[in-house]
Design goal:
A hairpin with a 4-residue loop joins strand 11 and strand 12. The chain has 284 residues and is an alpha+beta fold. The protein contains five helices and 13 strands. The protein has one domain. The chain has a six-stranded mixed beta sheet with strand order 5-13-9-6-8-7.
């Protein structure tokens, strides 16, 4: 009778970390605090408007009236959320549940933060011309980038952050690669671009809570390209809870970390049609 020899256990291959997603363009702040209860709010001046008057002296009454007045602009961030990983197995041979949970949490966090941002922040964008300058019209990608850059320049004081699903990256107009570093990709005017694996193609109609091929992955060649103000990700302390259940001989470890994603005052979106660039192989 043939004898089956046991496999020789070795370390897994090294992982090249996930790059060019939301966390590559966001300012990341590691601190615990009261924000973990209900989120944050902040006052911003980055979307201020104004006007001008011409000449030293008014030629007609009212020529030098400065009637555009603005008050405080307060931005309320979304509810805080926790990213978690749960590991459990038969306790025999599963002695390192806690470090496994910690390591897995590190790897999945970038994508899950993007998924929250797509569903709970970008998906809340309204339907006004200020927020969707072209309405529901689908346009070529380069045109969409230009429209959002122009729109941001009129409404926001800083460079916008562009957000696109990860499958769009090969088609995206980028700055000369010599001007990009290993962690960041930029559009032609230098605006940072986040290519998120957790971003939905159409977050406005994605009702299901789980990702499906119909929600992400370029199934029909269309997606929504977003532009926002600066993004900041706040992270609390990482906690790991480990338990052992004797009746089932199961060891369990749960790792979790609270997060908050804050976006400055500007947000807009343009629908893009990439079906011509992708070709006839697109599934519909």
């Amino acid at each position: 009778m043939a004898t089956t020899l046991p496999k020789y256990s070795v370390n897994p291959p090294d992982i090249d970390p996930y790059r060019y997603g939301l966390l590559s363009v966001a300012a990341v702040v590691d601190e615990a605090g009261k924000w973990q209860v209900s989120g944050v709010e902040f006052d911003t001046d980055a979307c201020a408007q104004g006007g001008y008057v011409s000449g030293m002296c008014a030629e007609q009454p009212g020529d030098h009236d400065k009637g555009h007045a603005e008050g405080l602009h307060t931005v309320e961030g979304p509810t805080p959320f926790a990213v978690y990983v749960r590991t459990e197995c038969n306790a025999v041979g599963f002695h390192e549940a806690e470090p496994i949970a910690r390591a897995r949490l590190e790897w999945v966090t970038p994508r899950l933060v993007e998924e929250f941002y797509s569903r709970e922040v970008l998906a809340q964008l309204g339907t006004s011309r200020m927020e969707r300058p072209l309405g529901d019209q689908a346009v070529p990608l380069r045109y969409a980038v230009g429209v959002l850059e122009q729109h941001a320049g009129q409404q926001y004081a800083g460079r916008p952050v562009l957000h696109a699903p990860r499958w769009v990256a090969p088609f995206f107009p980028l700055r000369d690669t010599s001007e990009n570093d290993d962690l960041l990709r930029s559009a032609p005017l230098g605006s940072p671009v986040a290519f998120g694996a957790g971003y939905l193609d159409d977050p406005f109609t994605a009702a299901a809570r789980d990702l499906t091929l119909g929600q992400v992955g370029g199934v029909d060649g269309t997606f929504w390209l977003f532009a926002t103000g600066s993004v900041r990700v706040r992270r609390g302390e990482l906690h790991v809870y480990e338990t052992f259940d004797p009746p089932t001989n199961t060891r369990l470890a749960l790792a979790e970390r609270p997060h908050s994603v804050e976006t400055d005052c500007f947000m807009a979106a343009v629908r893009v049609d990439l079906s011509r660039e992708i070709g006839a192989g697109v599934a519909v």
